[in-house]
């Protein structure tokens, strides 16, 4: 059944190849680039779906569609790709969100060729990251991601875009240093020739101190990306300034890379250190939920407020990862996907409405529900989804994380009660800031001095984008098994490591 | 017979298509959807009546041979946990679904007319159908997670419907308040569910009860933890049923349209908390102290609600406080061990209160053309009075509802309330005294509402209720309170405060003028308002309220029928030797331990006479205070009455003032919440924001700035000027030579 056709390589390389050929397109206005990028993204998404449907077995927890080309002899660097139940979800999410983000980016007219080029490069980098099976390749893809984001931030965005772009690149590059140290340390440890293969590394064991050092190095890199407090301050700035389609990519996919890496490398390769660190992860995650939620009240800027809310939601992922149970980890993966959809949609909607009313501060807004009922409807639906209303994906994810931490055998009674209690307080805080945001934006009545022509409701394109994101949110909420079935076997495999030792 | 049970899940999904199709229609084909707007109302009423058919069928089967049917299917299967969905048909479910569908049909029919001029007609029906779905889902759910899911969904529907007129800032903050407070309850509910899941490993009701029972008998569980979890579960019920510490959302929820207040905030959703308590009764019984807590909360709430209802000026708010108080009765009943009475009162109160709310909606509609469309005016009882001439049918229905709620014998609430009062004697005399006292208070405030609304003569025209005529108003008020130097104490006079809310009115007018809001600038609206006002003063002064249309009156009459009849289900009949009582037969699984097999008619009669005399006393006091026909103008509300007689009866006045202030300030609880909680959360968030901005981010920025200065310094040193390089070089060389010479020579 194994097909030798290099499907994954094609999937990874196609966007970047298409991106480089964007320069050969005739320069006839933005329309050409738009359609070209959209078609490429859609093609890629369809290709991915096709490959996953026909060449991937869900019940197999091993790596599938594996490819291995030797690139650099001297360093044992392989072009090694492969996917399993853990990475299939983020890859599909990437395809979905990127396609919709290119669709959302239609109003970008300034230098649109470069914009779309960068988006496609990002697409490649993300898929490459989620499907790489080699530590160094993982690192390279991680770095490949940064440059397009930096450019996207610094060229298309708000007034303080250079500040935030610099902040972003410094933070993430600073994190990457630790990642590189970890990668090289793990690769060069032990044997004479470097090993960078995930499978061989997973069976390797280290002295405890060294493992903790590695773990910590990786953790810092992911903590910047995820973000985990106190390394989160780049996020509100970046999201506040970026264009909304960049925000969609940032919130939808980029933040998930940290969580994915935490599961993929820290949990799989360094299980011993993870079981030592997991109580701290849970504590940090709990604090993060409350902390970010309370920071969010104080933000005047609409996008920054949503950014803080996404920091708060990341706390659930960290808790799920830290709980070291089947249930909790499943919940974390579900939360990765669910927040990918919801965060992207919230940024999209807030961006479009901000563009229309020309305000970004919440206290200047008000009463835009009458001219824009559709945006109002979609925004309320997504804020409901974000505050974990049952029937939508956020609720299932949070509930499963709750059940995970409750059933976790690792923790004692009192800590469990405390953690659950504090997490649940986050459940009260979330509606306060989300609903007051939507109240300040939409409720009430106000007359604007903006010409009427700008005050149009969302057109078919924007409606399409938001409904496209809304459907999976509802779908996962009603039938979460469709996501669980992807990852459940793999997670069992990962966790079996912990009970052997 | 089995078939009905097998297909009973349909009742959950029946009202859903309306919501979905209206939603999609409004998003994709708005004009076509709006053109057939009446059709949607018809469809939703039709679907809901099918639900009613089902529930009647189920109820009959439950009465005849009561057995419990449960169907489960898996929702998520995982290795460690599996969540199941299903439905459970038992007597409680059948009662609740019957209640929801009957009240729901009446309210839908009513709101077809009530909302017909509103822009959001379709939205309203979509929300209503969704509410019906989720409420039916709540009562048919078979495990705790399912209850939690629908619990939050009804909360969301309530949020959407309270904020239905979203252009009004008051409604916007009211809906947020309701959602957040309900979320506090959800927080408790979720934690309680998780706690019991942890204790027992099950979420299914029957397994849960059995396991907890065994564990408690075998001392297999930490009792304190179990009590904590039960308290948390009860917190959910407290928030949803508007019990004492968390009741503040219910009066504010009256910002929503009146049919909503009837359906959600009086009859069905607020009963969800009692439903939960009734559903979890086997759990609560085995865990100690929790029943005492329930009865304590119930008694506090019923007294508090009644005292707060005493002097409200807004008709819907006073009804809301009355709902709070009655919910306190219903919560007291399971606490003192009489579930049957709780459910009985739940049913009778739902019909009576729905009737009252729908009646008040009819009054509001008839007042609106006269006083204007702001709820501050059209719901203000100060401006009403003497409506019995103009709205006779509404008046009769309202009177019957009032009397029922007061507990006057042939009507529904009498039977149930009397049962609760009787049972409370058996539980504790103190509770019984409070409950009886509150029954008197209930009669007082309900009759006060009735008298202020319908008795006397119409006060709108006396008031000259117009903000431009402030001086005139003041001169009039001098003539009213002329004995003393004029002290207009704004805090105590609701109708003066209302004037400040002129902005509100602006929102209102612009909201109701369809489609014109876009190009109206503020001044235009003001101009239009002034035009309207002059129009109002010239012509409408002679306009009087009109009776509502038949589609409004029909549901009222049907509900009157229910109010008259529904008491019968709990009245014990003597059929030869067999003791017969429909409700008890219905609730064979839930009958209370106090229930005697034969009814002692003598005891019943004495209790009834006592409670009725208490109620009649309340009625009498109310009619003394408010019923004076000749001088209704002087008795606008309590405060005027006090101000007038201040010199004579100072002590009594002070007491009354205290009561009035207590009621007007809503028992100072809202103020406490605003000052205490909201402000502290804001302060905390400011602090954390400061910390985040200046310390965590400050470190980052500081590192950036420091590296900048470092770089600048290095740049300055390595500036690229040959001369400075030469200078440095030479100076170091010279220093070296100096040292060299110093050491060696």
UniProtKB/TrEMBL annotation, chain A:
Domain of life, source organism: Eukaryota
Catalytic activities: a plastoquinone + NADPH + (n+1) H(+)(in) = a plastoquinol + NADP(+) + n H(+)(out); a plastoquinone + NADH + (n+1) H(+)(in) = a plastoquinol + NAD(+) + n H(+)(out)
Localization per record: Cellular thylakoid membrane; Plastid, Chloroplast thylakoid membrane
EC id: 7.1.1.-
Transmembrane segments: 6-25, 32-52, 86-106, 113-130, 136-156, 168-186, 206-224, 244-263, 275-294, 306-324, 336-354, 375-405, 417-436, 463-480
GO cellular component, one term: chloroplast thylakoid membrane
Any one GO BP annotation for this protein: electron transport coupled proton transport
Chief subcellular location: membrane
Name under which the protein is recorded: NAD(P)H-quinone oxidoreductase chain 4
Automatic annotation (TrEMBL), chain B:
Main location: plastid
Protein family (similarity comment): Belongs to the complex I subunit 5 family.
Keyword NAD: yes
Cell compartment(s), UniProt: Plastid, Chloroplast thylakoid membrane
Residues of the NADH:quinone oxidoreductase/Mrp antiporter transmembrane domain: 141-442
InterPro entries named among the record's database cross-references: NADH_UbQ_OxRdtase_chlpt_su5_C, NADHpl_OxRdtase_5_subgr, ND/Mrp_TM, NU5C-like, Proton_antipo_N
Name of protein: NAD(P)H-quinone oxidoreductase subunit 5, chloroplastic
Membrane-topology descriptor: Multi-pass membrane protein
Gene: ndhF
EC annotation from Swiss-Prot or TrEMBL: 7.1.1.-
GO BP of this protein: ATP synthesis coupled electron transport; electron transport coupled proton transport
GO cellular component, one term: chloroplast thylakoid membrane
